[in-house]
Amino acid sequence: MRVVIAEDLFLLRDGLTRMLQAHGLQIAAAVDNGADLLAAVTADQPDVAIVDVRLPPTFTDEGIRAALAARREVPGLPVLVLSQYVEQLYARELLASGSGGIGYLLKDRVFDSGQFVDAVRRVAAGGTAMDPEVIARLLARNTGDGTLAALSPREREVLALMAEGRSNAAIAQRLVITERAVAKHTASIFLKLDLQPSDDDNRRVLAVLAYLGG
Amino acid sequence: MAVLTSPRRARPRFGPQAGLVAATRGVAFAALMAAGIGLLILLVAAVFLIALGAGILFVGSGGPHEERVLLAFLAIGTGLSLIRFALPATLLGTRRLARLTRQLAGDWCGVPIAERYAPPPAGKLTYTERLRWLATDPVTRRDLRWTAANLLACALAAAPAAIIATGLIEFIGPEFTRLIPPPAFPGNTPRTLVVLGLAITSVGVLAAPALLRAYGLVARSILAPGGEAELELRVQQLTETRTEALDTGAAEIRRIERDLHDGAQARLVAMGMTLDAAGQIIDSNPDAARALVLEARDASVKALAELRALVRGIHPPVLADRGLADAIRALALDASARISLASDLNGRPPAPVESAAYFAVCELLANVSKHAEARQTWVDIRHTDGMLRVGVTDNGHGGAEPARGTGLRGIERRLAAFDGVLAISSPPGGPTAVTMEVPCALSSPKTSSC
Hints:
The complex is a heterodimer of chains A (214) and B (450).
Chain A: E1 2-6, H1 10-22, E2 26-31, H2 34-44, E3 48-52, H3 62-73, E4 79-83, H4 88-95, E5 102-106, H5 113-124, E6 128-130, H6 132-143, H7 153-164, H8 168-175, H9 179-192, H10 201-212
Parallel strand pairs in A: 1-2, 1-3, 3-4, 4-5, 5-6
Helix pairs in contact in A: 2-3, 6-7, 7-9, 7-10, 8-9
Chain B: H1 16-58, H2 65-109, H3 127-136, H4 138-176, H5 190-223, H6 228-281, H7 286-314, H8 317-322, H9 324-334, E1 339-343, H10 351-372, E2 377-384, E3 387-394, H11 406-416, E4 421-425, E5 432-439
Parallel strand pairs in B: 1-2
Antiparallel strand pairs in B: 2-3, 3-5, 4-5
């Protein structure tokens, strides 16, 4: 799998490169600004781009804008955005930029390289990887009006993991239950929230995020 | 408190419609003038009563002595109580009228007039403190002077309406109703009367905009700030707000230092020690070393989370990235309450103003969720005439009092550093509307670089 990295801090760029290489991913290009990112994604046609939110010259939300621009340039390009902080506002903008192939994670998540590479692969495959903090805030926001009150605590856990973009297998592994049990929980969640069930993992994620107002 | 610059409004246009509008506005100004004179008469009456009482007491003659004294004390007592109760009300009333005149002079006459009152002292005011605050403000004298001068000046504003009324009623009126006798002069045939009436009316209509503007100019010559006393007051006010701003800034830096020291810094020290311990046992007990390394990793995650929270409290990244409207939008997305946002900003206020406005809105929204039990909150951000206006309105149960909580006072103090003001309306039963105004210019919107 070929990856393009856009990260302006040398230490982090270097660390990311080595970590991904150690997991058998190939780094097509590692750049330090938005313009170079655009050039790299058009020239190298990577499977996924990993982009830091803060990039020169403005050091504001350059990375988000570069990611959106890259997806306009190369439609369907999977992009994983990394940030020191997460905002639902940015999560929405990224999700609105096309269906699937979007990741938005805190930089801290690279500490667990197994999980992180898993997220990279998921995004590259057209899936979604939303940071648990974004999901936690979405859930917190939705608990106020009682729509989630019908869910059991376990179902809420499953819902959160599902919203992050994890597959049934990954949820099962995380919660140490069988995949069949996960499937039962998801069916129940979809029934209680009155959502159309779907076998397609990504469509399922997007439905849940849309339901939560993400 | 202060509006220093205001873009010049368009000059009045001429024409029948503009003329009629101007004449109507002139009448409205006359009504304001009458209200002001009414307030003055109240004061004059009080002074007159006291003088009368004194006169009866000392120089009066006739009638039995006891009755005279009784009458004198009655007059003096009435005068004094009138002053006691009516003086602050009169001063505040003239102030309201003068403020309205300043605003309307800008809106209607095209003559914006700057306004600069001394801010009320902090805390709940006693009667004398309140009176001193009102009476020592040089602008109060200016307002009183205007209320008196307005009696003459208002002729300018009211003249067009009077001329139009004369033309219509005196000259054209008699042709259509028998109740009004036609004016008596040689050659007052119906035709001449109608022609004359039309001519007079159109003179009134045509002259109205110019006369209204002239009235505005006269008002400005009296109501606009100037003079040494006001400058002194302004300097004093600036000194106070500057000291407060510096104090707040210093306190904030101390808080950040403490948070860093107790939080992230302490965690980093602990992490270093954990990693050192792991290094010492890595050969003898790799499993325990691995557990320590994982512990250090978790500590780093916590340190990062604390730093994120700290940064959010200093200057939220999304505010730096996207500006006020999007930062509040992000806030609304995280809140469990229903918050809708309307903004017409196309540019960004200076960073300190932006930050002050953002944290003020944060605090107000927190107040709403803590106290108001509102179903919906509206945030409205606008920038007009060199003034940033942010309104936060909720449909909760109202009854918010700035005097009770320190929160609103704090916001007020922070806004004062930018000559900003805060107004609150919160009747029991709601709704609560808080409006903040800060004079500032917008920088042009940042252009995307990719």
